[in-house]
Amino acid sequence: MKQKIVIKVQMTSDKCRTKAMKIAAKTHGVISVALGGSEKDQLVVIGEDVDSAKLTCLLGKKLCYASILSVEEMKPNAEEESDDEKPVILNCTITTSYPQFPRLCEVVVYDPSPSSCSIM
């Protein structure tokens, strides 16, 4: 199934745009990648069997923020499309935001019956 995915990505410079396009182009099943939107902050990905959630999470990890704007199923030929059949459009938002610093986790283990040490 060929699909068109539009992802909003935080891209402030040309370097970020290039990085986002490289990440999307390396994803399995992607046929083409383009920039869209008035501020060039949307990534338009066309491909077959592309995992949109996985791609959005990957972009979010590398570029700090990404969300899915739309996912559309594309028909092979526009001539075959009738008036009754409209493309399926799924509007959903998956927001991934990662802090700029690593998270530290502290694990505390409590042993309710500690082994007693006796010195003889």
Explain what you see.
Helix content is 21%, strand content 29%. The protein is α+β, with helices and mostly antiparallel strands. Strand 2 and strand 3 form a beta hairpin. The N and C termini lie far apart (76 Å).
Helix-strand blueprint:
Elements: E1 2-9, H1 14-26, E2 30-36, E3 42-48, H2 52-63, E4 65-73, E5 89-90, E6 96-97
Antiparallel strand pairs: 1-3, 1-4, 2-3, 4-5, 4-6
Largest sheet: 6 strands, antiparallel
Number of strands: 6
Low-confidence region ranges: 99-105
Give the SSE order as H and E letters. EHEEHEEE
- Overall pLDDT metric: 77
Radius of gyration: 23 Å
Strand content: 25-35%
Could you say which overall geometry the principal axes of the C-alpha atoms support? elongated
**Number of helical segments with 4 or more residues:** 2
Gap from first CA to last CA: 76 Å
Q: What is the helix fraction of residues, given as a range?
A: 10-25%
The helix/strand class is alpha+beta
